[in-house]
Specification:
Layout: H1 9-19, H2 25-34, E1 49-54, E2 57-62, H3 63-72, H4 80-83, H5 88-99, E3 101-102, H6 106-113, H7 116-126, E4 129-130, H8 138-150, E5 155-156, H9 157-162, E6 168-172, H10 173-207, E7 225-235, E8 240-250, E9 261-267, H11 278-285, E10 290-294, H12 301-309, H13 320-341, E11 349-359, H14 361-370, H15 376-384, H16 394-397, E12 416-422, H17 431-435, E13 442-447, H18 455-465, E14 471-476, H19 496-499, H20 503-521, H21 534-540, E15 547-550, H22 555-563, H23 566-571
Parallel strand pairs: 1-6, 9-10, 9-11, 11-12, 12-13, 13-14
Antiparallel strand pairs: 1-2, 3-5, 4-6, 7-8, 8-10, 14-15
Helix pairs in contact: 1-10, 6-8, 7-8, 10-22, 11-20, 13-14
Length: about 575
């Protein structure tokens, strides 16, 4: 191969164009890893050149040229063919990325990179970033990351290359283009699905308008106060101890509750804790609901901290797919006993009609308790092809294949009468057969920019598998996997681009959705029904997080939308709900 042969410009255009699209965080990682491979190094044993290969064509760039560009802004001859196509602001961004330092110690980096999900990610990245001999670069990438994080210069993209353990780095542009095409297809299909939901939501507003002028604002706090009790629970059968915060409403004035308060249970997501949804618990309590918020050991913030500090090997053990719903069942059993014998709880809670809400892993928890069954045949099929998938939530779902053999038919709880799943993972672990078992009212809440549990794969498509007649789908445009979460002291720092815009607005929506849904289906108050409409949902939505809402979505319509050409998708008339 000629060292200075030039890669065809149209193909480079396609790589740049596709990898810019905001598909999921794997795409972001791909871009992240492409940059370290072109960083400078002063060490003789580190990479001296970066080779960009496309079929039989190859071009190289010296790391000295890249160092001069990153640190001084000078563009040498071998870098010029690439930089000339970038706009000035893009050049500035690239220099910033090359020099930006991530303050993280080698222990958490090492712990994460040796987890099974990280192994899969590294394998995918190693298909593009290779060693000097052309072998997969997965191990070299991992070594460079760990060594750079331990170096006094820290974990920068430049320093990662300094620690890259081969004399050169080869980037396979042909494979990068294949991946870019795969990601582009996912992006286009997601856009078409979101457009379909938006069209049907708008059509529903026109077909069934609702007079909203006299409706109270559900985003405002109610008239009840509350007291919080923290329970220390001990399930001796599972050798499992965990905490749960219980919010008990207290009436003000003449609004003394005549009956025990209906209960709502909130299940946090992976790596979160029971503080994440304090805002929602307090809001529901202010309207007279009792609220229980348990902590799930083994998949909470403490587990994540243990992983990063070297005390744990995984962010969540496979058994947590079973432990989480069993935590809720045990909590309900304990509250039943307390309501009978403990003066602080006696007569305070109605445990015969319970609402369930969960986010992410908690969304899965809510769906299983609502009646969804684990679908191991689909899980095995999807996980066998995980190396061909860009659905990052499979990295967690596929861990369930390591569960001990069992039917796991005891996860549903008949006390749960309605459920909300926010950003749930459901596509493979539950699948069509599992989700079709749910008979109670269900609401899915999805974010169009969710890169952890992608909207199309994990919420929109699974929504079409639900057979319960009372089902709802809310899509938050520009919403991310973290939009509905309140910040807590245990949070890891995440950039604003990952968290998403206007988190306070997203939390305000969540309060309104939760209150309307549980007010109607758990409290049995008909005055909440008008809120469960596209007219209401679209009326409260505003930029940058506008809302769409549908009560049905057929698999046939979704399939047709995904197969429609881009031109047709942008010009076709709006559908009906």
């Amino acid at each position: 191969m000629a060292e200075n042969s030039v890669v065809k410009r149209p193909d480079l255009d396609r790589v740049i164009h596709y990898t810019r699209k905001p598909l999921n965080w794997v795409g972001i990682l791909l871009g992240f890893w492409l940059l370290p491979t072109v960083a400078p190094t002063p060490n003789a044993s580190a990479a001296e050149r970066v080779y960009l290969s496309y079929d039989i064509l190859e071009r190289s760039i010296s790391v000295d040229s890249l160092a001069a560009y990153a640190q001084q802004g000078r563009i040498k001859d071998d870098l010029a063919p690439y930089i000339q196509y970038a706009k000035p602001e893009q050049q500035a961004q690239l220099r910033n990325l090359l020099l930006r330092r991530l303050d993280v110690s080698p222990v958490p980096i090492s712990q994460f990179l040796y987890t099974p999900p990280a192994e899969i990610l590294l394998q995918r990245l190693g298909e593009v970033i290779k060693t000097d001999s052309g072998q997969t670069g997965s191990r070299a990438i991992r070594a460079a990351l760990i060594l750079a994080s331990a170096d006094r210069d820290g974990l920068t993209l430049l320093n990662v290359l300094r620690k890259f353990p081969t004399s050169s780095v080869r980037i396979d542009l042909a494979r990068a283009l294949e991946i870019a095409n795969e990601l582009s297809t996912i992006f286009d299909q997601t856009e078409k699905a979101l457009a379909l939901v938006s069209q049907q939501s708008t059509a529903a507003v026109a077909d069934s308008p609702v007079n909203l002028s006299q409706l109270p604002d559900l985003q405002q706090r109610g008239s009840f106060t509350w007291r919080k009790e923290t329970l220390k629970l001990n399930d001796t059968n599972r050798h499992r101890q965990f905490l749960a915060d219980i919010y008990l409403p207290i009436s003000s004035g003449i609004q003394q509750p005549q009956t025990p308060a209906k209960l709502i249970v909130i299940s946090h997501g992976l790596g979160s804790d029971r503080q994440t949804f304090v805002y929602l618990a307090e809001h529901l309590a202010s309207y007279g609901f009792a609220v229980a918020v348990p902590e799930h050991p083994g998949s909470n913030a403490q587990q994540l901290q243990d992983l990063l500090s070297g005390k744990a090997n995984e962010v969540s053990e496979p058994i947590e797919f079973i432990n989480r719903p069993l935590d809720i069942k045990f909590l309900l059993n304990e509250l039943t006993l307390l309501s009978q014998f403990n003066p602080a709880f006696k007569g305070k809670i109605n445990l015969r009609e319970v609402g369930m809400i969960g986010q992410s892993f908690g969304g899965y928890t809510a769906l299983v308790l609502a009646g969804a069954t684990l679908n191991f045949p689909k899980l095995q099929k999807d996980c066998a092809a995980i190396n061909n998938s860009w659905n990052t939530s499979l990295l967690l779902q596929c861990r369930a294949l390591l569960l001990p053999p069992s039917q796991y038919n005891n996860l549903r709880d008949e006390r749960i009468k309605a459920a909300i799943a926010i950003n749930p993972i459901s596509s493979s672990i539950l699948g069509p057969d599992g989700l079709s078992q749910i008979k109670i009212p269900v609401m899915f809440v999805s974010g169009s920019a969710d890169t952890v549990a992608p909207a199309l794969a994990e919420q929109i498509q699974p929504f079409t598998w639900l057979t319960t007649p009372n089902k709802y789908l809310v899509v938050m445009k520009n919403g991310t996997h973290f939009s509905t979460l309140a910040p807590t002291e245990s949070d890891l720092p995440l950039p604003e681009s990952v968290l998403g815009p206007d988190l306070a607005l997203a939390r305000s929506y969540t309060k309104a959705f939760g209150l309307a849904f549980f007010g109607f289906y758990i409290a049995n108050r008909p005055q909440y029904q008008p809120y469960l409409s596209a007219s209401y949902v679209e009326s409260i939505g505003r930029e940058p997080l506008t809302l769409s809402f549908v009560r049905s979505l057929s698999q046939i319509d979704l399939k047709a939308a995904l197969q429609r050409s881009t031109t047709q998708a942008t010009t076709s008339p709006k559908g009906t709900n």
